[in-house]
Amino acid sequence: MQLSAILLTIATAVMAAPSAEPAAAEPGAIEARAQHLATWWEHAGFSGSSFNSFGDPGVCTNFPAVWNDRFSSARAVAGWKCRVWDNAGCGGNSFGDFTNAGSNFPSLLNDRGSSWRCVRV
Q1: Mean pLDDT over residues 110-118, rounded?
Q2: Global pTM?
Q3: How far apart are the C-alpha atoms of 29 and 52, rounded to whole Å?
Q4: For the chain, how far is it from start to end, CA to CA, in angstroms?
Q5: In angstroms, what CA-CA distances link 107 with 7, 72, 73, 77?
Q6: pLDDT digit string, tens, across residues 63-103
Q7: Which keywords does this chain's UniProt record carry (predicted)?
Q8: Structural domains of the chain, count
Q9: Does residue 12 fall inside a structural domain?
């Protein structure tokens, strides 16, 4: 009988205890997480094969090997602007700050993009 009373007391205390809430993010903090940020096309004028890139906002991302050095135009998702580099790790020549209106790449970067980064407009 005493064991039942002890177990009942423990169960009641556990159920009445406040649950642990995750810490709230600071106001204005941006949580980085992989999301669709841009679409890249094989040919100028947003034609040919396309690749939807997912990445963390503000983080340099290399194109997968199969898509490296293949793009001629791109369009950022609404609310974002993106830049492309001709070397991995966002190095070398760059072009961009293109938005949802999109852009054809200049000859300097046509079929030479190896990495990209997008940030909020």
Answers
A1: 96
A2: 0.71
A3: 26
A4: 68
A5: 76, 9, 11, 23
A6: 999 999 999 999 999 999 999 999 999 999 999 999 999 99
A7: Signal
A8: 1
A9: no
